[in-house]
Write a sequence for this structure.
């Protein structure tokens, strides 16, 4: 096959999914999964900025041991909102909502997801849920922490019900997205696309969707019960009426532990694609990586009790959940091994997405190991509810998921918008982000070791220096994110035209134009081999060849 | 139903009507799984509190009117039968009969809610209410109010699903009457029926837990 | 070596032997973590350099994994994880298993203070005095929401729950002072809910307890007095008196020793009561609370099973106030006439 012609303005200026229909209304009623993906990009970025703002306020307050810029009640609201907004408005919806939506049909050879109208509905559910939660925030907002432990959450005077209701609606959107993706993957694969030829991105999104479908309803019901008890006082968690507050913890973490896998599996999905594209090499151990995604989803349902080691449950319970938590770590170890081994005999291009992959890998390994350390139970007794745990989950969520998110944004930016960003600025920002991340969260591991509990408004003076260091790091981190936002937005108007495949990646989605047309494929594609095959590309060989049936 | 009418129902992104129907069914089953898990949280709470307060729960359960509960069970089971018969009739193209069956299903649903209304009234009158509203003097043991908290939450959530199901069935009944569905395409009626069967199934679990043991 | 690692990792002092053994596991785990992370880091950097892309459309071989590779990279971590679990879990079990001869201290968390009470007195707020070298068991509950009793120096933490008792234990090595934190978010005062464990020489501790009890006894006369520091902001005792009247407690319980439908509240707190089923129980905060919530479970011998449950009718803060009121009803004299009801035992002597 002859090399593709060099990109030109004409290639870019042909009508594509962005320009085919004009006007705000065409966006508001769109059924195009690609446009929905772009809408999720805008919405979740706003969510991330909001959550980040709350984080900065927290870190500013913690610059001094006593009161700094806000009072204790406001501080409690800030960390509650930071958690709620980051988790429900960004971490859970972002990668599936943006990249799952945009890429699944392209990777599967389909024209859209199975239920396009339900897909659009999820965008409106996101807006509705976010709106109600925001309304609650403005009118005082909850001060319970995002974990809403009873009986504090049912007896506090702050408004919990709107935020709980908002989270419930956002959860419904998450469920519908999960159902959509599972059905799409089962029923809309192009002819020739067997399960063992699926991109690893699809496997991990599939596993994520399973968790979304099975775990979120339990959270929905649990949050509803807290809202009901807070408003009506029915007493289902109130010991004064025979209730058990620890029941809430079990019900809450039954969702919220699998939820962290909803947050990390899509990141792993992205990483599998990025590492193959930028090492220009087929994944080492495809089956292991594919099945380990399912393994994480499955075993992840049985580990929730490791959040309750100090809650008063029996040692027997602690033992079961501790052991099972170890097994979940193994599946991640499998992935780490296979990703690293993929680099062996690869042809690595050290550009921004790959830099973020490196950051992801190091932080996931370190953060994941601290998770294993917590699962040894006795170590958790010291670390539970301290900054050690905060550092652990931020290592995974920021060092893991957000690095992968940035890798995804940079890798698929040309695909989505047909433009390249400034590589120089991207590398600068990546460096700042990685540096800022380390400076923010490594001190927090040490604070946890020292015994500083989390959700503390004031603290003894011996914790002061490390808190200052962490705040300094957070500022650097925020600055890095800001730079990313700026050069990406700039590239939309002034970036170099990307052409169909600037990375020369052999992922299936790169066989479509960049940006893709409104209609994904002229006919039905027939798939004849797996993705990311780079064995014979030099002699102008086929690589990823796709034939189209009418 | 003619093939050209079938084509009206085929969405552009599905290669065939058969695939579309498979997708719709799979989607519905997944959604039903989420409903089961939604109630699962309440069943979990029930199990825990029953274990903690066995005597209180037995005593409170004895206050329920088993005859009304049994009547409701029969009503719902019969309604599941009528909706299944209705789907069968649509698949055979006999839309008039199908409409009658679907209307019967709706009638049974109304009967269910009416019986529930009488039950709730009785409990409210007796002071057998959730949590801090509980004021039934004859059973003042720890855990008694918890039984009624769970009773009202579980049957209330179930009743909400009955109402939603009625809405769905009413819409489908109108569409069936208008001839929108037929032997070539009746997937929405199937899906509505599936939802109704779930509503019935949940009650079949609620009934023994709240009335019989 | 221990000190070096402890300082490098910013860990607090090791106030107990348990803390020291937990730290040893910590060192093992963190070293392996550092090594593993470094190994991945170095490998990736090496690969990035050696296998950098040299030509634009460079092709790469498909390298198939051998089963042995996957086995090693699953097996090795698995063994390591299980070893760590095998060390850590028994440590946790040991923490949950107090020795039989441990000295009991009752702990109450409430917004936003820690109250400590020794059976037989005294009581204290925010300061827990314990003897060095003796095991101490903490029987803990909360008066309102979930708190968590955390002593970093002991690597010790246990949630305190309303309506329930949780326990933990420790044996402090030597005299010193260690900070107590609340580690479960509980409102605006969460980070101010600090306390201190004061570990004393055993002989000093015994002397302190004996002195406290003498002081308390000497300060009492025949009129009931509060027997512990009362929070001046709320005067729980007065609230409790008012509430007991409102809820009709005085229909069956007297405060002056007179026999009535239910046991008298005078000197009730701390009393050993014989129950209908022959068991003995100490009338502590837990018993008093349970009696209000589920009175038929532990009926005192000689009395009828007629007390109604107040579960759901009295909110937790009011229960606490009533209990505090009951606790305040103390005399230093034993009732002169023999009683048909429970048997009274004098305040047990200091150990």
């Amino acid at each position: 096959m002859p090399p593709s012609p060099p990109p030109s303005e004409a290639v870019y200026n042909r009508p594509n999914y962005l320009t085919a229909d004009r006007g705000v209304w065409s966006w508001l009623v769109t059924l195009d999964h690609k446009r929905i993906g772009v809408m999720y990009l805008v919405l979740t970025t706003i969510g991330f900025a909001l959550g980040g703002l709350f984080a900065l306020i927290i870190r500013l307050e913690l610059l001094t041991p006593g009161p700094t810029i806000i009072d204790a009640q406001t501080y409690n609201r800030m960390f509650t909102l930071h958690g709620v907004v980051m988790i429900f408005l960004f971490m859970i919806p972002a990668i599936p909502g943006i990249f799952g939506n945009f890429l699944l049909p392209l990777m599967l050879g389909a024209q859209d997801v199975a239920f396009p109208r339900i897909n659009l509905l999820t965008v409106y559910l996101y807006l509705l849920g976010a709106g109600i939660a925001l309304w609650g925030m403005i009118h005082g907002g909850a001060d319970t922490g995002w974990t809403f432990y009873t009986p504090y959450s049912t007896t506090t005077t702050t408004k919990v019900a709107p935020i709980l209701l908002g989270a419930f609606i956002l959860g419904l959107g998450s469920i519908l997205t999960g159902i959509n993706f599972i059905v799409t993957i089962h029923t809309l694969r192009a002819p020739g696309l067997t399960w063992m030829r699926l991109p690893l991105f699809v496997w991990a999104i599939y596993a994520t969707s399973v968790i979304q479908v099975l775990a979120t309803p339990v959270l929905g019901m649990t949050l509803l019960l807290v809202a009901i008890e807070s408003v009506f006082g029915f007493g289902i968690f109130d010991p004064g009426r025979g209730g058990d507050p620890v029941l809430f913890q079990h019900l809450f973490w039954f969702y919220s532990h699998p939820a962290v896998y909803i947050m990390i599996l899509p990141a792993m999905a992205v990483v599998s694609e990025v590492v193959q594209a930028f090492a220009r090499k087929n994944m080492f151990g495809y089956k292991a990586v594919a099945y380990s995604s399912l393994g994480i989803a499955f075993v992840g349902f049985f580990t929730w009790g490791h959040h309750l080691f100090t809650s008063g449950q029996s040692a027997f319970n602690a033992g079961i959940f501790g052991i099972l938590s170890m097994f979940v770590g193994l599946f991640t170890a499998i992935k780490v091994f296979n990703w690293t081994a993929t680099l062996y005999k690869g042809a690595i291009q050290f550009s921004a997405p790959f830099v973020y992959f490196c950051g992801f890998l190091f932080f996931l390994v370190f953060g994941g190991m601290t998770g294993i350390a917590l699962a040894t139970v006795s170590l958790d007794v010291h670390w539970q509810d301290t900054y050690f745990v905060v550092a652990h989950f931020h290592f995974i969520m920021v060092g893991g998921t957000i690095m992968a998110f940035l890798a995804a944004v940079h890798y698929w930016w040309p695909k989505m918008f047909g433009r390249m960003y400034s590589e120089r600025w991207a590398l600068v920002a990546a460096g700042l982000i990685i540096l800022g991340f380390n400076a923010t969260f490594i001190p927090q591991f040490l604070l946890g070791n020292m015994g500083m509990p989390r959700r503390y408004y004031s603290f003894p003076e011996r914790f002061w220096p490390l808190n200052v260091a962490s705040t300094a790091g957070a500022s650097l981190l925020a600055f890095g994110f800001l730079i990313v936002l700026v050069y990406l937005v700039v590239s939309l108007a002034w970036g170099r035209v990307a052409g169909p495949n600037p990375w020369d990646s052999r992922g299936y989605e790169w066989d479509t134009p960049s940006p893709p047309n409104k209609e994904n494929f002229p006919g039905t594609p027939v798939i004849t081999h797996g993705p990311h095959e780079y064995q014979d590309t030099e002699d102008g060989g086929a690589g990823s060849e796709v034939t189209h049936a009418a | 139903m003619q093939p050209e009418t079938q084509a009206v129902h085929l969405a552009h992104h599905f290669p065939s009507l058969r695939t579309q129907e498979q997708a719709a069914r799979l989607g519905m089953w997944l959604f039903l799984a989420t409903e089961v898990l939604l109630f699962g949280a309440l069943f979990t709470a029930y199990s825990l509190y029953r274990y903690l307060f066995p005597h209180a729960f037995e005593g409170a359960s004895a206050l329920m009117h088993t005859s009304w509960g049994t009547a409701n069970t029969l009503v719902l089971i019969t309604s599941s039968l009528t909706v299944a018969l209705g789907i069968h009739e649509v698949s055979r193209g006999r839309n008039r009969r199908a409409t009658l069956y679907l209307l019967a299903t709706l009638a049974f649903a109304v009967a269910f809610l009416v019986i529930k209304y009488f039950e709730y009234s009785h409990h409210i009158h007796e002071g057998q209410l959730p949590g801090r509203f509980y004021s039934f003097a004859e059973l003042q043991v720890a855990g008694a109010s918890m039984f009624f908290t769970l009773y009202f939450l579980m049957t209330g959530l179930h009743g909400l699903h009955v109402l939603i199901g009625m809405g769905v069935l009413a819409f489908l009944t109108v569409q069936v009457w208008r001839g929108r569905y037929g032997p070539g395409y009746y997937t929405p009626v199937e899906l509505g029926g599936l939802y109704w069967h779930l509503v019935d199934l949940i009650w079949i679990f609620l009934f023994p837990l709240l009335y019989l043991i | 070596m221990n000190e070096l690692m402890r300082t490098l990792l910013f860990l607090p002092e090791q106030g107990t032997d348990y803390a020291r053994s937990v730290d040893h596991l910590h060192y093992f785990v963190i070293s392996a973590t550092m090594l593993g992370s470094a190994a991945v880091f170095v490998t990736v950097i090496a690969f990035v350099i050696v296998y950098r892309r040299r030509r634009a459309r460079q092709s790469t071989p498909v390298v198939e994994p051998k089963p042995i590779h996957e086995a090693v990279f699953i097996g090795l971590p698995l063994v390591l994880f299980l070893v760590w679990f095998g060390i850590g879990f028994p440590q946790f079990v040991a923490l949950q298993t107090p020795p039989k001869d441990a000295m009991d201290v009752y702990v109450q968390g409430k917004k936003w203070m820690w109250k400590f009470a020794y059976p037989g007195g005294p009581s204290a707020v925010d300061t827990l005095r314990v003897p060095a070298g003796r095991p101490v068991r903490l029987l803990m509950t909360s008066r309102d929401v979930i708190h968590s009793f955390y002593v970093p120096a002991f690597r010790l933490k246990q949630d305190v729950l309303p309506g329930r008792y949780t326990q933990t234990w420790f044996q402090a090595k030597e005299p010193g002072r260690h900070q107590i934190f609340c580690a479960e978010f509980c409102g605006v005062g969460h980070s101010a809910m600090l306390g201190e464990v004061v570990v004393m020489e055993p002989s000093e501790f015994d002397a302190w307890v004996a002195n406290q009890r003498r002081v308390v006894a000497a300060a009492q006369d025949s009129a009931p007095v509060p027997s512990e520091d009362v929070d001046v902001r709320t005067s729980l005792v007065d609230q409790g008196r008012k509430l007991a009247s409102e809820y009709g407690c005085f229909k069956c319980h007297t405060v002056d020793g007179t026999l009535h439908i239910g046991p008298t509240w005078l000197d009730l707190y701390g009393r050993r009561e014989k129950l209908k089923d022959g068991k003995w129980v100490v009338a502590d905060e837990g018993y008093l609370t349970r009696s209000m919530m589920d009175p038929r479970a532990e009926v005192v011998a000689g009395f009828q099973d007629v007390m109604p449950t107040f579960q759901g009718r009295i909110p937790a803060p009011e229960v606490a106030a009533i209990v505090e009121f009951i606790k305040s009803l103390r005399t230093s004299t034993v009732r002169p006439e023999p009683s048909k009801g429970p048997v009274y035992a004098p305040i047990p002597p200091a150990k």
User: Anything to note?
Assistant: The mean pLDDT of chain B is 93.
